[in-house]
Amino acid sequence: MKRMLPAAVATLALWGCGDSNHAIVNDSREVMDASQQSVIASRAMGLVASSDASEKFVTRTVFVDDTGAEHVRFDRTLGGLRVLGGDVVVHNRGAGLASDVTWASDVSLKGLSTKPVLDAAAATTYAEKAFVGKRSGPSSAELMVDARPDLKPAVSYEVVLEGVRPDGTPSELHVLVDARTGELRGSWEGVETTAAVGTGKSINSGTVSIGTNTISGGYEMRDVTRGNGFYTMNYATGLVFTDADNVWGNGATSDAASSGVDAHYGQQVTYDYYKNVHNRNGIDNAGNTGYSRVHYGTKYNNAFWQDSCFCMTYGDGDGTTFRPLTALDVAGHEMSHGVTSRTAGLVYSGESGGLNEATSDIFGSMVEFYANNANDPGDYLIGEVIYTPTKAGDALRYMYKPNTDGSSANCWSSTVGSLDVHYSSGVANHFFYLLAEGSAGNPVSPTCNGLAVAGIGRDAAAKIWYRALTVYMTSSTNYKAARTATLNAAKDLYGNPSTQYTAVGAAWTAVSVN
Ligand SMILES: [Zn+2]
């Protein structure tokens, strides 16, 4: 049984202590029988005995636990002011059993002046020194007494400042300012993280569950459960998406949150993929997964990862060729650039640049398979869902036959390094498809040497590529060195000889990397 009482102060003096100034004000007599009242009263007398004449203890709640013990919370006031650190809990553990008191702070307030020198406006000016970010919205300042433990108690203002932090997160900063000197006594953030699960109506992935966070008045698009968390913001407003009912977007571009849902979902699935498949904790393997920004620019037909902000940014597409670029494989692709930068560091030009791009296509595709989302099933196409209906069937890249796009290389040649990195990636994309699915996969994948290659499955192929990337590849790895790196990874994982080791060699040979 649990009885919670409102914090309203009833002005009924109960359990007279011989001095009405020391009244225990109580509005909860009906929940305690006489013996319980007397035990609590005797404990409460102990509180009052050492208190200042203008102190009052006010019942906040009475909680009866499973054993029948009563736990009565009191708040303290001094001269009518709220005392921070003034709360106490009186425990009545039942007839014949010990009762005791838990104090938030046992600092004495005897003789403390409650007269401020500063007014609220002056205190607010002092408090603003503690705010980092952009102030907006109202502020408030309440005169109170700061009696937290291990501090000299002082009459203070609790100033609340609203705004946004530099990363776009809503902020409700509480700052304690000494009401006599202006000294800052402490601060805390009122926007707390309470994990929630929202329903997101995305543009490209249907209706999905997304990790969100409870804030005052609703929710924000912030996942607080995966590693160190991540969030998604609207580039146009500079703010993290917020919502009143935790149902986000409407599945169309008419609601700005819809593509936010896609980006957030993509970040969530990519985090889960790396965590659950490769035991990697976020992009940097230290819990950090960056953040996402959507609605970048005007009709912008691209998406990009930046190491400098450790963030991903998506355009909305021009509406003619592209829809919003927030798709699962694009999210996986972009975030994998972050993984590459924190591991092999493949330089983004020449053959290493092609391997960098291929790594993002490979894991972008694996993320799409991992999501197992009927609205965007796994495949070896990149970006196939970001095309408008009139371009249906198009994709940015085709891993099973890269030259389908008219520009990418199917096979290695000595000039492949002079191609744009999004086209020189074709050789490694082709290798990966052959390794995973084989030349007779669906779709079929023609080899450069005309020989058939048997696939070893996506999971084994992805494990080999991940280990090669994180253990053996370097900033200058070229195609020949990638062959060695993946063979080493296959040997580590599956041994040599093994079917997998043999298949790695055969798949590279099939794309002319010897
Ligand atoms: Zn890329």
What features would you highlight for this structure?
514 residues, 4 domains, Nuclear Transport Factor 2, Chain: A, 11-stranded mixed beta sheet, elongated, 6-stranded mixed beta sheet, alpha+beta, disordered N terminus, single chain, Elastase, domain 1, 25% strand, 28% helix, binds zinc ion
What does this structure look like?
The protein has 514 residues and is of the alpha+beta class. It folds into four domains: 13-103, Nuclear Transport Factor 2, Chain: A, CATH 3.10.450; 120-189, Roll (Nuclear Transport Factor 2, Chain: A), CATH 3.10.450; 197-326, Elastase, domain 1 (Roll), CATH 3.10.170; 347-514, Neutral Protease, domain 2 (Orthogonal Bundle). Helix content is 28%, strand content 25%. It is built from ten helices and 24 strands. It has helices spanning 34-49, 120-127, 257-278, 328-342, 350-371, 421-424, 426-437, 458-472, 479-494, 499-510; strands spanning 13-14, 24-25, 55-64, 70-78, 81-84, 88-92, 99-103, 134-146, 154-164, 170-178, 184-189, 195-201, 207-215, 218-220, 222-223, 230-234, 239-240, 242-243, 247-248, 291-296, 303-306, 311-315, 381-382, 397-398. Strands 1, 2, 3, 4, 5, 6, 7, 8, 9, 10 and 11 form an eleven-stranded mixed sheet that branches. Helix 7 packs across helix 8 and helix 9 (479-494) packs antiparallel against helix 10. The protein is elongated. It starts with 12 loop residues before the first strand and ends with a helix. Mean pLDDT is 87; it is low at 1-33.
